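@channel anyone free to eyeball this complex?
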Amino acid sequence: RKEVEQDPGPFNVPEGATVAFNCTYSNSASQSFFWYRQDCRKEPKLLMSVYSSGNEDGRFTAQLNRASQYISLLIRDSKLSDSATYLCVVNMENYGQNFVFGPGTRLSVLP
Amino acid sequence: NAGVTQTPKFRVLKTGQSMTLLCAQDMNHEYMYWYRQDPGMGLRLIHYSVGEGTTAKGEVPDGYNVSRLKKQNFLLGLESAAPSQTSVYFCASKPGLSDEQYFGPGTRLTVT
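replying in thread with the prediction:
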């Protein structure tokens, strides 16, 4: 089993749609969780950290379920500019440097 | 503030040749990382450094060496390139008390 797995995608959605991505991780001791965004042929950039209580940043909502070892990202009112690959990232060690990236889920928002 | 820069942006090597990739950051970050990204596999950690003069192995270190002689620079070396090392290489850095990594623009390496 891969350490971090994501919905394979791609997701093709119309503008204004709500879309959700899922991510599962294998190490129950994992301590910190993130969603990064990567545009085509560009470097990854942090979208948001994922906290135990869940967190929201504008149209983006991240949730963490430690019992199920599951992370989600919800995007509401999709924009054309949201088209990108979304990477789930898990730090497998407390205060460590073992950041494991999922393979990513590609989103295309269509006009 | 340039952030994280990588040199070169593109390179084509023949099997057996050597090269060094340079990563530089001007944010005074303690931690630096080298990743490779291959289609469908996500980024995989090659080596990382928690401070000047220290390095450690990541998930896929074989065939690579690194050095961090200065805090702002992290070098990745390929002593004898192989076609399996064809990839996009990303460098990243982060400050000590944050988990947010800042990535460079990447180096596209092809080994023929």
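from a first look: The interface with chain B takes residues 4, 32, 34, 41-46, 49, 87, 91, 97-104 of chain A (CB under 8 Å).
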